[in-house]
Amino acid sequence: MRNLLPVVILVLAVADPVASYAGRRWGRVPFLGATLEGSALFALTAFGILAVRHDLAAAAVTALVLGLTERLSWPLDDNLTLPVLGAAVLTLLEATP
User: Fold this and answer.
1) CA distance 47 to 73
2) I need a surface site. Which of 26, 27, 39, 44 has the fewest CB within 10 A?
3) Can you give the pLDDT at residue 27?
């Protein structure tokens, strides 16, 4: 089993600032405490990073889950929860035939 944490940490490191900038710059539609444009760009950026090393279906589902989860309020910081959740989702998707 390969270590998936580095790739999902990269997703967080790139997609979070991209979404933040896009939401502030072009965001117009409110979405779960942020903007739809920022959240959509988070998911698209995550998909682009994940698609390099994973199959497209697993990348798409993981990017969508992370994009939605990033908008939810958690008692823990999203810098901890998103990489763990992303690695778990990828592990489940890649283990399923």
Assistant:
1) 22
2) 26
3) 73
pTM exceeding the 0.90 threshold for the entire prediction? no
Q: CA of 16: how far to CAs of 11, 55, 90, 93, 95, in Å? A: 8, 22, 19, 23, 27
Task: Tell me phi and psi for residue 3, to 5 degrees.
Answer: -85, 115
User: Tokens for 19?
Assistant: 């979404």
Partners of 31 in the β-ladder: 34
- Kindly list the distances between the CA atom of residue 69 and the CA atoms of 2, 18, 72, 97, in Å, as whole numbers in the listed order: 24, 16, 5, 25
Token pair in block for residue 78: 């999203």
**What tokens appear for 36 in the block?**
């739809």
Going from the C-alpha of 5 to that of each of 28, 94, 95, the distances in angstroms are: 33, 14, 16
37, 27 Cβ separation under 8 angstroms: yes
